[in-house]
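Methods — Computational structure assignment.
A single polypeptide chain was analysed. Its primary sequence is given first, followed by the predicted tertiary structure written as structure tokens.
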Amino acid sequence: MQAEAIRKHSVNQFISHNSLAMHHELSLYDLFKDLDLAAWDAYPNVDDDYVHILKGHDLCRSAKHDNFWILEQKNGYINYSTYNLAIRPGLVRAWTYLDIARGANGVVYYRYRANRWGNEQNPNGILRHDSSKRRAWYEIQQLIRELAPAGDVMGQTKVYAPVAIIHSYDELWSSLAKNQYSNYDCHKLEDEFYRALLSMGIVVDLVHPEDDLSPYKVVIAPNLMLISEKIAGSLSDYTASGGLVIFNIRSGQRDMHNAMTDKTWPGLLRKLCGVTIDEFEAFPPGKGNKVLYKGREYPASWWADIITAETACTEAVYTEQFYQGKAAITVNTFGKGRAVYFGAAGCADLVADYLRALLLGAGLQPLCLPDRTFVIERKNKTASFTFILNMGEVPQELDPGIRGTDILAGREVAGSITIEPLEILIVQDGKPA
């Protein structure tokens, strides 16, 4: 209603709205449906691992499958926190480049001048309460100068995301309403896959369950306990046409009304996955099982779906309990594609190793990135920009997989490089290494 009222009285004015991205009470897919562009407020901690921030960028970008804006970028202290670390020199500039790298076409800082009244009196402003310039002012000025030569071209590019994670608000709300087990956490399940992909430099879109999946080489569904005929059909069509889809624990157990299916688990996904889920275990702290994959045992500490492979092939098995030797991971050929059922949770190393092998098989080139170091590409048909960022506090060595020249400092990038804390490299039209 507000958007309709504004459009009646404005010309060439885009309409957006603040959001908090990973706060799950409100669907961003619904919020931004009738708005011109998606936007959110980014408030990273000084000691952040940036998973929450990057997922916020990815979700906001995926809400309209387009670039977005940051309407509030933190640039100083924050009012609502258990602690406040000082903003290190260069951090505001680095936060902004991280925004842009992940798809932000506009970054607005909160605030211009620190607020003297009300609930938000801490100096989260480019100017202090006395109007003097904070360090953030000079970093923003530096960034504006740096972006001037290439900014117009960069603004016409979009983030390249070859992998999609299905992000279901219905699933999140179902978990809030009826979680059943304290160790079953939708966010943790999603993060296990997300963190693994992040460490490999693979950017993902966080897509609605009914989105078009055809642009993606791999689709991951870590939370798909609730499923409809439409969603199951879309996933089957995607797989049959040559796609690779990965399902996680409890998939297909309920309908969209949160009622348990009367079909054999995994319900509407049984034919696609080629498996039957016989039983499961939700482990208490300190308990678990082990999974044998390619000669190595991996601990599974949260959950175990006990799988009988029907048309699927077994790729990993459990090594303990009464279901020793039963399938933990299966893959089923379906049409021209494959459907994986990943039946264990709480096994980050297994997720990472298994995903790496799958991604290589799908024609992608996963990297080995150090902690809080990111490689992100924005591109269109005629230009590309590869951002290499070290958001940590120590130098890191990495091979970004490309060669070219950094447009910020003129530094040559090829093979293994060392990148200093809060250093940002942007390689324009780089070539694969």
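Note: DSSP finds eleven helices and 24 strands in the chain.
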